[in-house]
Amino acid sequence: LKLEHLDCNWFSEIANLESLTIEDANTNTIKFGDNMSNLRYLSLKRNRIRSIDLTSLSKLEFLDISDNLFESKPNIFYNSSFIKKLNLSHNESMNRLVKNMFRGLNNLIELDISFCKLVEIDSNAFFDLSQLEILNLAFNNLKLNNSDVFSHLKRLKKLDLYYNKLEHNSL
Considering the chain, what is the average pLDDT of its residues? Predict the structure, then answer.
């Protein structure tokens, strides 16, 4: 299946739609209509997505955009305060987490950024993630020279840094 540009207005007649899975569709652009406000679960795994606008998805709690071409940009999740679980794993074009990338994700509890070839995390990349409890950064190329990277994560319970290039004085 190849759907380069997907207009989700196709589903606008299904007003009560709560879960949508579009995987392996080779999609790079997705537009969500205003009638999709009841969507809580969205999986877009294994596509070609670089960026996404979630503004109209006001009840979305789970988002999986793993194994795409997602790029690290400031404020990309700005209107997404409703998301509790976000999977960005296997986005190999995302080699750096920039300042304010996760701005607006005030209710995020779990974040998976494993297998992304991350090399660097800006000091305020996690600034708005005050509710975050689980952070997976495994299988990247992180050195973590900046000791205050995790300072805003006051509720963090589980941090996975397995298989990175950490040095003795990194943390």
Answer: 88
